[in-house]
Amino acid sequence: MKVDLSIAIGGFQGGGIESAGQIAVKAFAIKGYEVFGSREYHSNIIGAHSYYHIRVGGKALRMPLDALIALDAESVFTHFRNLRSNAILVCDRSSLEKKVSEIPSMSKALRERIERTYGNISLNQILEKLELRLISLPMAELLKKLSEAVKKPMSSVSRTLNVMGVSAGLYLLGLDESTIKKAIERQFPDFEINLMAMEIAIDEVRDKERDKIPDGKKGEKLVLTGCEAVAIAKLFSNIEFLSFYPITPATDEALFIEENRGRIITVQAEDEISALGMALGASIAGLRATVTTSGPGFSLMNEMISFAVQAEIPIVITLWMRASPSTGIATRTGQQDLLHAIFSGHGDAFKVVIASGDHEEAIEDVPLSFKLAEDFQIPVVHILDKFIASSLTSIEKNKFTPLPKREFSTPPENYLRYKLTENGVSPFLPIGMATMIVSSLEHDEYGFASEDPVIREEMMLKRIRKFRKLAKRVSGNSYSVYGEKNAEITIISFGSTKNAIVEAIEISKIPAKFLQLRILSPFPDISEEIDGKVLCIESNAGQLSFLLKNCCRVDCVAKKLNARPLYVDEVLRAIEGAIEGRKEVILSGGV
Amino acid sequence: MDKNCEKCGNWLPHIGYHFLGFCNKKVDISFRESFCEFFVEMELSGEFLWCEDCRSIISFAEFEEHKNSGHKIFRGVFVDSDYREEIYEG
């Protein structure tokens, strides 16, 4: 029996939604399932609705939901339209009388949308309209029980409400008590009170109808967020220097490295220009260096990117893409920095842009980025959607591969830092091992500033040769192909849309193939791969389709503009739209 | 129902859970609908207040406007100090 579940855990921001979601993901991973969890939260610190969306038995999110664990009334009002018939709803009993007008934190726009359709409806009235398996927990009573059981004031046990809700929900979904217990112990190793909370919540629902799920595959897996996956991959890549300026979600990655840094130098710079400047300095000195940021910070790094190109300094810039422009929606996902990444820096700023589709690819792409940066002395921008950053997923333990440390040969007598070579790549030695000049000015082979037209032309041609050589190196690995040959439709996309598209083409009635672009600069030639109509799917206003039009036709562009992740069912709708002849499909899934 | 925690001057509502709050007298959580012998009438004063409907701090000058709109106003709000997991940068 294949287990395929879509679960949401909702509550107010600050109520432990992330912890509850992580407990659920860990529990299903312990049970041996492929599991993926994505957190959606507001950019304010506390109070607003946030939720965790979990997929069990797949790596893409799908609707409708099979279960909703709602820690407050707002979560039910927000998600009830996404519940399938006979879905499990776990909620607080005291919230059932609440009317939509009585939810202080709900956004005016959402409240008005609900009131327009249903009027000022109460939760009870909503639930009467739906066929659900409602489990209303007496949260206040459970809290009292826990307080008495552990002989502690309620103020010190009230923060276990999230554990109570998720424990009851997971138990009803068929997970056994010992698995839930293990997951809670991993989440909160030093807080036994949570285990008591779990027991009390499970006791409350013990006599209710439960689903049954078999054991999944044996073998422990790692459970990591995208930020952690990238951070660990950088540690495996033997980085020696990391600088950053705090920004969502890059800080999570940087702090993980800082906490586990060993001998790595980590610096929180005063701004992003300095962060990249410091990292370039470290790279010139021979260290494997990297920075991490997101859109607004990357804007500040632009001047330094040009410097890295001109001075031929290896550097890896991790760029987490949020919903832009400007601060935009700082904690939500987007793919709006694609063109910014490719065209960053002024002048002929040749660089590599790599896009990862999920956690596993991110783990592969980190060492690849360093390899390309160092082999070709060039900036590499590794772009990842915010969706990947805070999503939690199960990963095989052997995914990480070490990258040997940078090695340098003995300096020759007459060392030329910018020696003109056939492939454009000059010998790299760290400053200090040989005499050299590194500056932002155009230069001769030694690095001395020069405005001589012949030298300028030679250096331009050298950098062009280098980039052509790089393009040749990566040409076989620039994109992945999924699905059928001679399909009726070819979907082209990049980044975190991958898993939703891969799953959609497997179940689509229309024969479809998918070209997932992995390296976007140098841009791959995919013209030979096109079959049937061309559908471009992207979470921006059409940046990839703009690039594609240089090498192939694009019949339809499906755009996800609401700063939410792409769902499997949306891809199916986009395919239908493209086949019907629509030029543009707007995908609006998610709350 | 006139003298439950919700109406008591010792009580602050929880920022997230509607049914919960914090009693400054007992120095512990208590439920919105509970009663006890320590009840004191709530007096709204001070520079800032908490509007539960807007889920935000308001200045005393805004009090009348919120009250007239039917909003529930309290002297403050209870936020658990252990909510660090939710704090993110801009």
What's the arrangement of strands in the largest beta sheet of chain B?
A: 1-2-3
Q: What is the strand content of chain A? A: 15-25%
Q: Give helix and strand order of chain B, one letter per element, not per position.
A: EEEEEHE
The secondary structure category of chain B is: mainly beta
Molecular shape of chain B: globular
In total, the number of domains of chain B comes to 1
Please count the helical segments of chain A: 20
Considering DSSP H and I runs of 4 or more, what fraction of the residues of chain A is helical? Answer: 25-40%
**Can you count the beta strands of chain A?**
22
Give the strand content of chain B: 15-25%
User: What is the helical fraction of chain B, as a range of percent?
Assistant: under 10%
Number of domains of chain A: 4
The CATH topology of the largest domain in chain A, please? Pyruvate-ferredoxin Oxidoreductase, domain 3
Q: Cα distance, first to last residue of chain A?
A: 31 Å
Number of strands of chain B: 6
Mean pLDDT reading of chain B: 85
- The total of helices of chain B stands at 1
- How would you describe the oligomerization state of the chains in this entry? heterodimer
Which CATH first-tier class of the largest domain in chain A would you pick? Alpha Beta
> Any idea what the shape of chain A is?
globular
Domain Pyruvate flavodoxin/ferredoxin oxidoreductase pyrimidine binding (chain A): 237-460
Domain Pyruvate/ketoisovalerate oxidoreductase catalytic (chain A): 14-202
GO molecular function (chain A): oxidoreductase activity, acting on the aldehyde or oxo group of donors
Keywords (chain A): Oxidoreductase
